[in-house]
Amino acid sequence: MSPRITLCIGLTAFYATVAAGPALALDPKAQGQITAAIPLEAFKSTSDALRSGVKDYNAGDKLGAVKALEYAAQQGHALARWKLGRMYADGDGVPQNDLKAFQYFSRIADENADESPESPSARVVATAFVALGSYFLDGIPNSEVKPNAARARDMFQYAASYFGDPDAQYNLARMSIEGQGGPKDPRQAIRWLSLAADKGHVPSQALLGHMLFSGQAGSRQKARGLMWLTIARDASNPERDAWITELHDKAFAEAADTDRQAAMVYLDQQTRRRP
């Protein structure tokens, strides 16, 4: 079984404190200038800088993209900070640097925690919280960012509940199953997985199906579990997500014919529910 969903950023931890609510107050030393200041006259506006950065990035001009995105980031643009965080985490056009990535994601969370879940920027802010939660889990080697499972759980909890982010819901469910950063709570894990599964989150569908089929959170629901495992298998990449196929095939082999037939009925009902 997959240990956690693979996020698109290098995953580590957070050394700041929470001042009030979910806002993340960084250590003043970590708040220092990330890059040299870009001249204010370099771009007509923050939006112009962002457009230029995206254009340069898509054209393969990573240096130009970084210059433009850093300008927009210095003006507080969340999407520019998020893209720079991704680039530093992945070593994409810049030297790989998890600590810089962490700083960019932290600033997004610190300044945009109250962003409306309906706003165009909500997804960016939510994924920043997910990134911070993942950093908290693993820590950043040779830095002040140490593993902190309780803080990771806080970050996932906020992104999962306030923004309804499926990656956060999945990670929070995993922590609830394993008792990381808090008590074990399989029933709560089922609830988080159900929310993410309904959004089409494939790993959540697979894990939910496995838990229902095996009865990890109480009574076994083999037919519904097999339904979710079938949905996950059909939507997964067979090479990358071999664990999903293995869970499905094992459950299918163990299921009685009546469970298989009921699973197909549930599958048809679930398909009709989709918009």
TrEMBL record:
SMART domains: SEL1 (SM00671). It comes from Alsobacter metallidurans. Keywords: Signal. This is Exopolysaccharide production negative regulator. InterPro entries: Sel1-like, Sel1_AlgK, TPR-like_helical_dom_sf. It comes from the Bacteria. Residues 1-25 form the signal peptide.
